[in-house]
Specification:
By secondary structure, the chain is α/β, with parallel strands linked by helices. The chain folds into 2 domains: 16-157 and 392-472 and 519-542, FAD/NAD(P)-binding domain, CATH 3.50.50; 166-386, no CATH class. The protein is built from 16 helices and 23 strands. The strands form 6 sheets. Strands 4-3-2-8-21-20 form a 6-stranded mixed sheet, with helices on one face. The protein has a 5-stranded mixed sheet with strand order 1-7-6-5-19, with no helix packed on it. α1 (28-39) packs parallel to α14 (447-467) and α14 packs parallel to α16. The chain is globular, with a radius of gyration of 23 Å. The structure holds flavin-adenine dinucleotide and NADP nicotinamide-adenine-dinucleotide phosphate. NADP nicotinamide-adenine-dinucleotide phosphate binds next to α5. Flavin-adenine dinucleotide binds at residues 24-30, 47-50, 55-56, 58, 60, 65, 67-69, 74, 120-121, 151-156, 199, 396, 399-400, 435-436, 446-447, 451.
C-alpha cells in the first residue's frame, strides 16, 4: 500500500479549517468524490476513520472475502485509461486484489494528500447564518465548508450483538467487518462462527480447512449459489476492453446495473422441464444471474417457489447428512434476503471437523469462559467469529450527530425510518448530500456504478450552483415525501420486502421496519435523477 504518512494528517492546522467541501469516508465513493471535486477546482478534505483508503475492502479482511459482482464490472469506469490498464486476475476479485486496485487508484490520482486518516467524524452541524457546515472529529478538531457529503457506506457500521457473559469469554472475538489486518491463524483451534449470511458463507469453508473444529451457529439458513470462480479468460477480457464503454453502457440499461442475461418473462409460462433446464444451466454458470432465470421470480410467489425448491434439492444432494441438509435448506422466499455466492459452502458440512448448531428456536444463551452456551450445552471453543452483519444503510449516518437548518436532528427525522429525496439529499439539511443513501438503488444494484452515478450527479450539482452564483440547495419536503412514498409503493410490488432482512432493518433490534433501497431499477432511477437536474433541480429549493 502507499505511504499513509504522506497524507492530510501531516499538515493538520489547529482550530477550525475551511474547505469548499468536506467528504466523510474514503471508500470507493469518497475517493471518486475527491477526484471529481478537485476537477472543479474546489478545496476538499476527506475524513476517514480507517488508516487507509478502501472502505469495505479495508475493513472486511476475513478469510475468503471477495466480491460477488464480476471484477470486470466491479470497478470504476470514469477513466478509460484506468479501466484499460488495470488487469483483474479472477472472475470474482478477492478482498486483497480489490485493495491493490484501490491503492493503484489512490496513487494514480494522488488522492491521499487530501485525506485525513484515523479520524472519525462525530458531528456535523449546519450554521444557518453562514450557510456553512461545521464538522467535528474525534480528535477535537473542527472543519467548516459550504458543502458536506456523506460517503459513509451502506455496510460500514458493524452489527455487534451483545451476548450475556461476553466479557467472560477467555479467547478472542472477531467481527468479519473489523478483521485484524495481520490476519488470524486458526490452525489447531476450535472456532465458533455466529451467523450464516454472505460473510459467514464465504469464511466458513476457509476457516474449516484451517481449524481443528468449527461450530456454526445458524439462526436462519440462507440460499447460496456456487460462484464457479476461476482465472479470467484473456480473450473475454480483450473482448470487453475493445469496447469497455459500450459494455458499461449496456450494464446501465439493466435493472441492477450488472450485465447479465435475464431469462423469459414468466417461470410459470414454461414447462417444469424447461424451468429445470434453465435453473440447472444457471447453477452451472454460477453467481447472481441465477436469480434472473425468469423475470417474475421476485414478484410471483409460485415462480419463486420453483427456484427455491431447485436450490433446496441441490442442498439435499450435496450434504450427506439429511438432518443437516434439512437445517441448511431455507424455508422462506429466495432473494428476499440477499442471496449468497459461495465456494464449497454446503460441501463444508460434510467435513468431520464441522458441526451445525440450530439456534432458530433456542438462541445463544450466553458466552462462558470457554465457549458458547445454547440450551444448557456449552460448545467449547478457542475463538469466536461474529459474522453478524451491519446496521445497514442508516447506521453510519446515525452514528454522526447530524443537525440541519434550525438545529433539526437527523436522528429525529429518521425516528420512524429513513426519509430522503432520491436517496441523495434531505429536506431541512441544506447543502448535505449522501452517496447511495436510502431510497436509491444502492445495495440492490452493482455498487460501483451506483456510486459513480451519485458522485457525478452531486458534483454536477455543486458545479451548477457555483456557475449560477447560488449558495444553498435544499430538498423540498413535498418532493421528499412523494419520493419516499414511491420507494415504498415499488417495494410493495416485490417479494423482496416480505421477509425479515437487513434491507428492512429487521436485523437491528428496535430499528423501524422500512424497505430502504429503491427497487424500481437502475435505468428508471438514473433517468429520474437526470430529469431533476435538467429541470433546474426540480424538488429542490435553490437560493
Ligand atoms: P464504504 O466502502 O463502506 O466506505 C465508507 C467509509 O466511510 C469507510 O471506510 C468508513 O470507515 C468511513 N466512515 C464511516 N463513518 C465515518 C465517520 N463517522 N467518520 C469517518 N469515516 C467514516 N457491493 C457490490 O456491489 N458487490 C459486491 O460483491 C459487494 N461485496 C461486499 C462484501 C462485503 C464484505 C461488504 C461488507 C460489502 C460488499 N458490497 C458489495 C458493498 C460495498 O460496501 C460497496 O460495494 C462499496 O465498497 C461501498 O463503497 P462506499 O465508499 O460507498 O462505502
Ligand atoms: P448478514 O447478511 O446480515 O448476516 C448476518 C448473519 O448473522 C445472519 O445469518 C443473522 O441471522 C446472524 N445474526 C445476526 N445477529 C445474530 C444474533 N444475535 N444471534 C445469532 N445470529 C445472528 O451480514 P453479512 O453476512 O455480513 O452480509 C451483509 C451484506 O454485505 C450482504 O448481504 C452483502 O450485501 C454484503 N456482503 C457481500 C459479500 C459478497 O459475497 N461479496 C460478502 C459479505 C457481505 P438472521 O438471518 O437470523 O438475522
Amino acid at each position: 500500500m502507499g505511504d499513509t504518512n504522506q497524507n492530510a494528517n501531516e499538515a493538520r492546522p489547529a482550530g477550525i479549517s475551511d474547505f469548499d467541501v468536506v467528504v466523510v469516508g474514503a471508500g470507493f465513493a469518497g475517493m471518486y468524490l475527491l477526484h471529481r471535486l478537485r476537477g472543479l477546482g474546489l478545496s476538499v478534505r476527506v475524513i476517514e476513520a480507517g488508516s487507509d483508503v478502501g472502505g469495505t475492502w479495508y475493513w472486511n479482511r476475513y478469510p475468503g472475502a471477495r466480491c460477488d459482482v464480476e471484477s470486470m464490472q466491479y470497478s470504476y469506469q470514469f477513466s478509460e485509461e484506468l479501466q484499460q490498464e488495470w488487469e483483474w486476475t479472477e472472475r470474482y476479485a478477492t478482498q486483497s486484489e480489490i485493495l491493490r486496485y484501490v491503492d493503484h487508484v489512490a496513487e494514480r490520482f494522488d488522492l491521499r494528500r487530501d485525506i485525513q486518516f484515523d479520524t472519525r467524524v462525530t458531528a456535523a452541524t449546519f450554521d444557518d447564518a453562514t450557510s456553512r457546515w461545521v464538522i467535528e472529529t474525534d480528535d477535537g478538531a473542527r472543519l467548516r465548508a459550504p458543502y458536506c457529503i456523506m460517503a459513509t457506506g451502506c455496510l460500514s457500521s458493524p452489527n455487534k450483538p451483545q451476548f450475556e457473559g461476553q466479557e467472560d469469554f477467555a479467547g478472542p472475538i472477531y467481527h468479519t467487518g473489523n478483521w485484524p489486518h495481520e490476519g488470524v491463524d486458526f490452525t489447531g483451534q476450535r472456532v465458533a462462527v455466529i451467523g450464516t449470511g454472505s460473510s459467514a458463507i464465504q469464511s466458513i469453508p476457509v476457516i474449516a480447512e484451517q481449524a481443528a473444529q468449527l461450530t456454526v451457529f445458524q439462526r436462519t439458513p440462507n440460499y447460496a449459489v456456487p460462484a464457479h470462480n476461476g482465472p479470467l479468460d484473456p480473450a473475454k477480457v480483450r473482448e470487453i476492453k475493445a469496447d469497455y464503454a459500450g459494455f458499461r453502457a449496456r450494464a446501465k440499461q439493466t435493472p441492477t446495473g450488472n450485465l447479465f442475461e435475464v431469462g423469459g418473462p414468466s417461470a410459470m409460462a414454461v414447462s417444469a422441464e424447461e424451468r429445470a433446464r434453465e435453473y440447472e444451466a444457471r447453477w452451472q454458470a454460477g453467481g447472481l444471474p441465477f436469480l434472473a432465470a425468469f423475470a417474475d421470480i421476485m414478484f410471483d410467489p409460485e415462480a419463486n417457489q420453483t427456484i427455491a425448491d431447485f436450490v433446496r434439492d441441490k442442498i439435499r444432494a450435496i450434504v450427506d447428512d439429511p438432518a443437516v441438509a434439512d437445517l441448511l435448506a431455507p424455508k422462506n422466499i429466495i432473494g428476499c434476503k440477499r442471496i449468497c455466492v459461495d465456494t464449497g459452502y454446503y460441501e463444508t458440512f460434510n467435513r468431520d471437523n464441522v458441526a451445525l448448531v440450530d439456534i432458530s428456536e433456542t438462541p445463544i444463551a450466553r458466552f462462558t469462559a470457554d465457549g458458547v452456551s445454547v440450551d444448557g450445552r456449552v460448545y467449547e471453543v478457542d475463538a469466536i467469529v461474529s459474522a453478524t452483519g451491519f446496521d445497514a444503510m442508516t447506521g453510519a449516518l446515525l452514528n454522526i450527530d447530524i443537525r440541519g437548518a434550525g438545529g433539526a436532528a437527523l436522528r429525529d427525522k429518521w425516528r420512524d425510518g429513513p426519509k430522503a429525496y432520491l436517496g441523495l439529499a434531505l429536506a431541512s439539511f441544506p447543502n448535505l448530500f449522501m452517496v447511495t443513501g436510502p431510497g436509491s438503488p444502492s445495495v440492490i444494484s452493482n455498487m460501483l456504478p451506483a456510486i459513480e452515478q451519485h458522485v457525478n450527479w452531486i458534483t454536477d450539482c455543486i458545479g451548477y450552483m457555483r456557475d449560477q452564483g447560488l449558495g444553498r440547495i435544499e430538498a423540498q419536503i413535498d418532493a421528499e415525501e412523494a419520493w419516499v412514498a414511491h420507494v415504498g409503493e415499488v417495494a410493495d410490488l416485490s417479494l423482496r420486502s416480505t421477509c425479515s432482512s437487513w434491507y428492512v432493518g429487521a436485523n437491528i433490534p428496535g430499528k423501524p421496519r422500512v424497505y430502504m433501497p429503491y427497487i424500481g431499477g437502475v435505468p428508471v432511477y438514473a433517468q429520474k435523477c437526470n430529469q431533476v437536474a435538467a429541470d433546474g433541480y426540480e424538488g429542490f429549493a435553490l437560493s
